[in-house]
Every structure is written in structure tokens, then in C-alpha cells.
Amino acid sequence: MTGSPAYSGTIPRLLAAAASRDPGGTWLRTDETTLTFAEAAAAVAGLAQALREAGIRRGDLVMMTARTTPPYLLCWLAVTAMGAVAVTVNPRSAPAELAGLVRQVAPRALISDPGLAELTGPVRGLPEIGVLDVGELPGSADRAAGLPDVVGPDDVAVLIPTSGTTGRSKLVMQTHRAYAMAGEGFPFWMELTAEDRLMTSLPLFHINAPAYSVMGSLACGAGLVLLPRFSASGFLAAARRHGATEFNAIGAMLEILMRQPPRPDDAGTPLRLCYTGPAPQRERQLEIERRFGLRIVVGYAMSESPYGLIWPRGTRPYGTLGTVRQHPVLGTVNEARVVAADGRVLGPGETGEIELRNPVLTPGYWGMPEETAALFDDGWLRTGDLASVGADGMYTFAGRQKEVLRRRGENLSPLEVEEVLAAHPAVLECAVVGVESELSEDEVKAFVVPADGADVSFDELRAFAAERLAAFKVPRYWQLVGELPRTPTARVAKHQLPAGHQAGEYDAGG
Fold first, then answer.
1. What are 446's strand-pairing partners?
2. pTM for this structure?
3. 27 and 144 fall within a common domain
4. Are residues 421 and 362 in the same domain?
5. Do 469 and 435 share a domain, yes or no?
6. Residue 406 counted as domain residue
7. CA–CA separation, 510 vs 59, rounded Å?
8. What is the rounded CA–CA span in Å between residue 84 and residue 77?
9. Which residues are CB-contacts of 349 (< 8 A; sequence separation ≥ 6)?
């Protein structure tokens, strides 16, 4: 599956086409500003020129502490348009995490803002060009000659960190083709038009907001509403204020919204669509839809492939992830299958690993040839997620094969947390696991074996972890144990640890 050889879509070409099609139409909306398609294209062109003047070249890696704000979004568009590669990182990272990623990637520049000085200040061995202030870059916009058109569909546009950065993070390489095809597909899958306004509070350092909300709005000429963060108490008010008709939800966002005190006007917003995944239970989904007066569309994808599964237009296959996504113009470009551990392709009703094959699979993990080789099965992407497929082609999610926890809408690696905790002198060893959360995601629990004679203070351990990890990675629950269970090969047998919440457990609170 190589896709159409004539395909020429890139990030800057989608932006240029939108600006040409509707130059005066309002594209970007926040509480502070609005930009038309033409104004956004001009701003991106000016930023690209400013970056060139700062010394950024085609192919350079440019790290960005990517807040969900217009300056960072426009800078992301400019970096990718000029042929550099955006390395988008969580602005809520701990300084040690950012420093680790800087050492791993060695970017030519780091783009940030003064509000994150505590994050970027301690970094030693700064990039060659140093730290650029995202708010100071647009100074040469009036000298811009136009949007660059120097990249092709298969050029790498972004490196997406998928887990912790205190050690070596897996950085997913994604291409201009992946973002452009995701943008062209999303309005078709969701039945969006130029009359819609897509609202996102999701991070620009993931793939969801840039590929679906940003690129999707450009592809169909819809408006884009940027919220700097998700606020359950203000979310519906923001939708009313900006006339938003669609939003994407990850993690526990819908459940958090449902736990807000009900109001008679909860359904009285312009919102008509929500994209999310995995699927809520049927009755819960209908309850959410009734309360907010919208329709939920369920899908499945990942950084390694923005083409995954989705509910087909006009169907309501409750409890499933839908079937294989296809391109509205290129037609059938995507395949999925369920595979057993021994490599057999499984039939209807059998549970195994989802594998995908399409033109927008990641080229691999940056600088990690062994991990990249392990990611593929003769051209098929191993997703690490388990599902079964019915005779009707609908896939039902069964769980994660990979040991990755999901908390507050973020993925985290237990190994990374364990390595941090094990560095504390009071800890002999530890095991980090996920425990059930009332918000439907994982909560994080650490089982700690104290060093000989050590007096373990969980408050101290928690503070130790918080200095070295982003907040969502710091365990909420803590428990002392005399030893960790082992397999015959001496590996920690996490499945033998006590399940749920035990006597003596310390709860640090959410």
C-alpha cells in the first residue's frame, strides 16, 4: 500500500489552498484574537522568514514547548512549511525531562516563551541557536514573500515524543503526507463543512489537534477555535461564545464534563458533533448525547498512523471502534487485520493485535532502528492494541498489549516512573501499575520496597518524583511491600501484585 503516486498534499499546501479559496473567511478564533485564512497564511510566511533569519535551515530539528495558543500553532505551521522538523514537547514537562530530550535530539533551536523560563532555564548545553521567544519571532512578517513550497509529501514534518524523556524517548516520525491526508479525511469521516467551527483544547504536542482539528479545518474551510486548556466548568460557555459545532475528546474529558452540575441549557450550545475513542458503553453514550445535544462519533488512531478505524457515516455501531478509515478522494488506501501472537491472521470474533497498513504509517522512531524494525510486521504496523473484528467489519477494543498507562489524557511509561523512584536512596526497588479510576482512565500506583533500614516517607517520595516528572506521571497511590513478586526468569510479575486498593495504601489525592 503506497498510496497514489500523484499525491502532492503537504501542510503548507493545505494552508495555501484554504487561503486562496476563502481569503477573507475567519479561520482562527480565541478569546483574544481572530485571523482570516489569508492573515494566517501571511503570518506563517513571515514566521518562516524570521526563522530562516534566525539560522533555521531545511531539515533542522526545532523543539517547541507547544502550548495550545495561536503563536505556537502558527510557529508549528512555519517550521514545517520551511522544511524543518518540529519536535513538539509538553510545556508541563519537568525541567529534567526537557533537558533529557534536548540531549537526545540535539535540536538546532528551542522555541518557548518567558512564562516557561523555569522549564527552559535549567537546560544545560542549549541548542546551537539557543532559546527563541515565540512571541518575538513575527517581526519580519512585512518582508515575507509568501508561503514556502519546498517540502514534499514524504518529508518528515514532526517528531512526536510518545513517552518519558528522562531517558530515551520514542519519537514518532510523521510526514507531511500523514497530516495532509488526515486533514482531508477528517471532515469526510465527521461530515463537516465550511459552515462548521472545530473547537480544540487538546495539546499541539500530540497528533490529534494538529492532524484532525487544524488540518481538517483547513481542508474543508471550517473555522478553528483554540482553547489554551480544557476547563470543564467553562467548556460549554466557550462553545457558545465562539459558535463551536464540533470538538474532539480524549481520555476522561466526557466523563469530567458529565460530572459538572447539570444545567437546563447544557444542550443549548451550537455543538453538534464530538469525536472520541474508545467507545463509551451504549447507555452512557446516549446519556452524554442527550445531555449535551450532540452526536458522538467513535474512532481509533495513533501517532504512528492517523488512519485507523472510525464509525462509518450514518451508522451507530455502539461499543465498537468502527471499521477501516478511507480517503474521500483516493478511495481505499487503508487496511486493518487482527493477528495472533504467533502471527496468524484471526477470523471474526477472535481477539488479537490490531495491525494497520496504509500510506501514512510512520517511517519509524527517530534514531531507533531496532525499535522501528520491531514496530512492523512485513509492512503492517503493530499497534500494540488488542481487538476482535466482527463479520460486519466492526472492530471491538479489548485492551492494550503494551504496558502503557493512560492518565489525564496522556500516555505514560511505568518504567520511566520506576527509574525515577528507584533513584531515591530510601527505595530498594519498586513497581508502578495502573489502578482503576472513577474517570475511566488509569490512576498510577507505586509499590515500594524500602532499602535496608530506610524510613520511607511517601510525601518525600512524591515530592522527589514531582521534581523530575510531569504532574500526570507522579503516582497518586503508594504502598509499602516487603518484596516484589517474580517470574521464573526473575522479572517483576506485576500481575501478581495486589489488585485494587489495599489496607495501608497511601492516597496522595488527585
1. 432, 478
2. 0.85
3. yes
4. no
5. yes
6. no
7. 42
8. 10
9. 388, 390
